[in-house]
Amino acid sequence: MNDPHMPEIQGRLVYTCIGCGKRYDIYDFVYTCPECRSLLKIENTEFDRLKRVPAQHWREIFDSRRNTNLPELSGVFRFHELILPIVPGGDVIYLGEGQTPMVRANAEMSAWVGVPFLVKNDGLNPSASFKDRGMASAISFLNHVIRVRNLDSVLGICASTGDTSAAAALYLSYLPKDKVQAVVLLPAGKVTPQQLSQPLGSGAVVIEMPGVFDDCMRVVEELAQNYHVVLLNSKNPVRILGQKSYAYEIAQQLDWDTEDLTVVVPIGNAGNITAVMEGFADLCELGIIPALPTILGVQSHHADPIARWRASGTYAPLKVSPSVAQAAMIGDPVSFPKVRKLVKEHFADRFHVVSVTETEIMEGMLRANRNGHVVCTQGGESVAGLKKALCDGILPASGRFILDSTSHQLKFSVFQQMYFEDTFAPEYGIRIDDSLKNRPVSLQADTLEIARHLGLKKKG
Known about the structure:
four-stranded parallel sheet; globular; Rossmann fold; 3 domains; about 35% helix; about 450 residues
C-alpha cells in the first residue's frame, strides 16, 4: 500500500453459507447453499490481513482517495479493499454512483419530526436509486468473470418493483451487447411509469407478470437454480458488497465518528439494511469507527413481517396490501435470515423496527419535499419511521440521526399527483390532509390579474 490511490489486488473471497458454513468458489454463479439451501454471504478469508493495517492508516487511505480523479476509485470502489479486493481497476464499471450528499433538515422539518436530522439522498445516483451501489459491484464482478473465464454469453436477470430493474438494465447495457443480455420481471401494474421507462430505455427485455414482487422473485429464483442465468437481486451477495458503501460513506462524511448515531433505513427485501449493518460491522472490526450505530428499520403496515418479528420474536411471511412505498410491498424478504444473524451477532440492542401507515409515509414524503428535499416514498417511510420511533419512546431525542432516502422523488411523482387529486384507491387507506395539496392555478396572461391573485402591492 505504498500508493494509497492504487489498491493492491489481494485477499481471497469465497461464498460462505450462513446456515451450515460450507464454502464455495467465488467464480461460480451460486446464490443459495447447494447443501442446505440457506443464503450465502461473501467472506474474505484473509480479512485478518486488513486488521494489521492501523485504523488511522485506513482512514488516511480512504480520505486520500476523495481527491483522485481515477474512475475506478471515484465511486463505491473508493473502499476497494472492503468491497471486491480481487477485482482489478480495469474491470471496474463506474457510471457515477456513490458519494451521495447528506443534507441537513431545516428547522421547520426538524421540529415536525422531533429532532434535527440529515437525509442521505441516494436518489442522486445514475439510475436515481441506491440500487446502483450494489449493481456497480455486481456488474464490475460480472465484467471481471467474463474476462477471466472468457465467457461468450451471459443473461442477467432480476425481479423488481422498479429500482432494481432500472439499475440492472443500466449497468448491463454498458457491457458488450454481443455477450450480455438484460431481462427484468415486473409485477404488472405495480411499477410507476417513470420506473418502467428506465429498463425499456436501457434496452432490457421487460416481462410483466400478474401478482406482486414475491411472485416475480419466485420465478427468477427458479430460473437461477435451474438455468444458466446471473441473478441480480440482493440474494446475489455480490450486490450486498457494493451497498455496504452506504455505511462506509456515512462514516467518512462524519469524519469517522459514529458515537450516538442512529441510521434510519426503509426495509423492502431486506438486502439494503443487511448491507448497511454489514458495512458498519466491517468498519468497527477494523477499528476505523469507535462504535456501531443504532439501526432503525421502517416498514409499511401493509408489509411489515420484520417489524412483527422484532416485536414478537416470531417470523412469518405476510400477504401484502398495496403500498405507496412500492419497494416495501414484500411479504417475505429474501434477506431476512441475514438480518436475524446480524442482529444476533452485532446489533442485539442496537436494532429497532417500526411499522408506519400509508398516510404517514405520504405525509413524510410531502413534508420533506416542501422543506428542500427530493425524497421518494421510501424516503417518506424513513421520515415517518423516525418521527414514530421518537413519539413512541423507542429512540431518545438525543444524538445524531441520518435518514436513508433510497430513490429520487420524480420516480414516485405519480403518488404525489394521486394525493393532490385525492384519487387513491380505498385499499391504500390514505387520509388526505388538504393543507398538503398543491395544484396548478389557471390564469390569463395578464399582469394585473396575476398580481391580484398573488396579493401584490404596487411600488411607490
